[in-house]
Amino acid sequence: MIYKTFLRPVLDRLDSETWHHNVKELMHLCEFSGLTLRLLEFAASGGARVRDKRLGVTVAGVPFENPLIVGAGWDKTARAVRALYSLGFAGVEVGSVVERPQGGNPKPRQFMVTPEVCLNSLGLNSPGMDAVFRNLARYGRLDMPVGVNLGINSDTSHEDAPRAYAAVARKFRDNAAYFAINVSSPNTPGLRRLQDRGRLEAIIRAVRESLRDSERPLFVKISPDLATEAIDDVVGVVIDCGISGVIATNTTDSNSVKGKYGTRWEGLRGGISGNDFEYKSLSASIISHIYRTTDGQVEIIGVGGVCDTASALEKLRAGAKALQIVTGLRGEGLSVANSINRGLLGFMDENGIGSLSEITGSGHG
Ligand SMILES: Cc1cc2nc3c(=O)[nH]c(=O)nc-3n(C[C@H](O)[C@H](O)[C@H](O)COP(=O)(O)O)c2cc1C
Fold first, then answer.
1. How far apart are CA 324 and CA 347, in angstroms?
2. Residue 146 is assigned to a structural domain of this protein
3. Quick one: which of 271, 247, 283 has its CA closest to 72?
4. Do 321 and 291 meet the contact criterion of CB atoms below 8 Å apart?
5. 3-state DSSP call for residue 91?
6. Is 325 in the pocket of ligand 1 (CB under 6 A)?
7. Which residues pair with 68 in a beta bridge?
C-alpha cells in the first residue's frame, strides 16, 4: 500500500534499468550483516518471511520451501541472492549468464509501459560467466536452491551455440541446483530459431555432456510467441532427450500486446512482461497445453505476469509446479512473495487443501 501510493509513482518517473540496478545494489548492501538482512525481511513481511510446510514443492527433485522463484533477469549477476531469500522467495534463477562479458543493446532499453508492465530489450547483458561464478561462489552455502539460466553471446553462430551453452553449464556444474537453457529471449537476433528441433537437440546433448555425473535437472525456457506445433516440437525434444521440463514463458514481442499501450510502444523492439491480461493468459494457456498434452509428465515452471494470488493460482491450476516472478517485484514491491504465499495459504485453508501439489493441474478437472 505504502509502496504503491508513495514510492512507485516516484520510480515511474525514473529510468527503469538504473533503478533496477540501484535496488539490486542496495539489497546487496543489506547482505553485509545478519541484522540488515533481518531488517529487509521485516520490511518485506511486517515480521518474518512466510514459512509453512504446506507451501513446499519439489521440482525435478529439487526441494523449494514455497513455489516462488525469482525469474531470470532480475539478478543476472548473482549479487543479491541472499537478500532475495529474505524477501520470502524460495529460489533464485541467476542469469542469463553468457560465456564472455557483453554490454547488450544500446540504452535506454528497459521501460515501464505501465507501473506493472515492462518492455525490455536488454540483449543478454552480462559480465560473463567468470564474474558471475565468482559472485555466486562468494556466498558459500545458501539456504535455498539457485538455478543458472544459460545464454549465449550475440556473436555466437548457431553452429557454435551448443558448445557455448555447454561452456557456461560446465562452469556452474557444482554450484547450480538446476539449469535453464534460454532459447527464447526476443532481444538477441536469431536466438529463438534455436528452439527448432534439430538445433535444440544438439544444444541439450552438449549441455548434458558437460553436466555428466552432476545430474542437475535441465529445463528449456520457451517463448510465448511460438505456434502450437512449435511448442509441441520443443516438448517432444524435452521428452525424447529425457530432460526435466520447461519454463514457460519468456517475454512476448507481440505487437498487438505492445500496441494496446499506444503508438510509442508499437513496433518498438523488446519483450513485454508483467501484469498484462493478454500476456498472462497467453503464458497460462501454453502451460495448460503442455500439461494436458503430456499428462503432467513434464515438469513445468510457470512465469509471465505472476503478481498476486489469483495469477499464481491460475498458473498452478494450469499445470505449473513452481512459479517465477520478475516484473511483479517492481509492480508490487518487496512484499510480493510473502503476500502471494499468504494468499495461497488462505486459499488452501478455505478449500481444505493440504499441499500445493493438489492445486497443480487441478484446472484440468
Ligand atoms: C528486465 C528483464 C530482464 C530479463 N532478462 C532475462 C534473461 O536474461 N534471461 C531470460 O531467460 N529471461 C529474462 N527475462 C524474462 C523473465 O525471466 C520472465 O520470463 C518474463 O519477464 C515474464 O515474467 P514476469 O512477467 O514475472 O516478468 C527478463 C525480463 C525482464 C523484465
1. 19
2. yes
3. 247
4. no
5. strand
6. yes
7. 323
Report how many domains make up the chain: 1
CA of 283 to the centre of ligand 1 (A): 13
- Cβ neighbours for 78, distance < 8 A, ≥ 6 positions apart: 92, 94, 132, 135, 136, 139, 146
Q: How many CA atoms lie within 13 A of 238 on its CB side?
A: 25
365 residues of the chain, pLDDT tens digit each: 678 887 778 777 788 899 999 999 999 999 989 999 999 999 999 888 999 999 999 999 999 999 999 999 999 999 999 999 999 999 999 999 999 999 999 999 999 999 999 999 999 999 999 999 999 999 998 889 999 999 999 999 999 999 999 999 999 999 999 999 998 888 887 778 776 788 999 999 999 999 987 889 999 999 999 999 989 999 999 999 999 999 999 999 998 899 899 888 887 889 999 999 999 999 999 999 999 999 988 999 999 999 999 999 999 999 999 999 999 998 778 999 999 999 999 999 999 999 999 999 999 97
Q: Quick check: helix, strand or coil at residue 357?
A: helix
Strand order in the sheet with 110-114: 110-114, 117-120, 271-274
Q: Note down the domain range covering 315.
A: 2-360
Phi first, then psi: give them for residue 118, nearest 5 degrees.
-115, 150
- The alpha carbon of 280 and the centre of ligand 1 are apart by a number of angstroms equal to 13
- Give the position of cell 503430456: 294
One DSSP character per residue, 276-345 reads -HHHHHHHHHHHHHHHHHTTT-SEEEEESS--SHHHHHHHHHHT-SEEEESHHHHHH-TTHHHHHHHHHH
Report the nearest-CA residue for atom 3 of ligand 1.
73
Structural domain contains residue 365: no
Q: Would you say residue 323 lies in a domain? A: yes
Rounded to the nearest angstrom, the gap between the alpha carbon of residue 277 and the centroid of all alpha carbons in its chain is 18
Residue type, 183: V
From ligand 1's centre to the CA of 88, what distance in Å? 19
Note if 185 is an active site residue: yes
CATH number of the domain within which 246 lies: 3.20.20.70
